[in-house]
Amino acid sequence: MLVSFLFLFLVGSYENYRVNVETVKISPYPVTRSGNADITITGYTARISDGSVVELTIAKASAGDPKTSSIKTYNLCDKVRCPIRPGRFSFTLSKIFSNEELKGRIYVITVRIKDAKDTSMCVVFLCWVTDDGSTSLIRQSATMMELE
């Protein structure tokens, strides 16, 4: 099932990124405490620098600033065939939550593609993990994206 969400405004605009995200798929959806989640991001790019990494940050949502729970870094070439050519591409981050994180409630998930100089992509969304399911909101730079 494809569900559309309106993205909240993020500082800057998506034109500032070299990757335009088309879809973010959370699987399984909804996320439950008895499982884990994979995230698949599909988008388009004009170019992504060699040596880029994917950074996944999971932070506990709170009344103030989110409290970082974990940061995981992946070599982008371990997730997609390199060199990345202009056009459509997709990658999956598997089993993103630790067992401890699955005990939590609400998380701010940030997925970035970056190199030593700058960030090519940044997607931020909320994920509620409950006993019976989750609801997620995703945002990227004043765009409309879809959540499968």
TrEMBL record:
| Record GO terms (molecular function) | sterol binding
Q: Read off the InterPro entries from this record.
A: Ig_E-set, ML_dom, NPC2-like
Tagged with keyword Metal-binding: no
Q: Which Pfam families match?
A: E1_DerP2_DerF2 (PF02221)
Task: Cite the MD-2-related lipid-recognition domain residue spans from the record.
Answer: 14-127
The portions of this protein that span the membrane are none
Give the signal sequence positions. Answer: 1-16
A GO term (biological process) for this protein?
sterol transport
Ordered alphabetically, the record's keywords are: Signal
User: Know the name of this protein?
Assistant: MD-2-related lipid-recognition domain-containing protein
Instruction: Kindly list the organism's lineage.
Output: Eukaryota, Viridiplantae, Streptophyta, Embryophyta, Tracheophyta
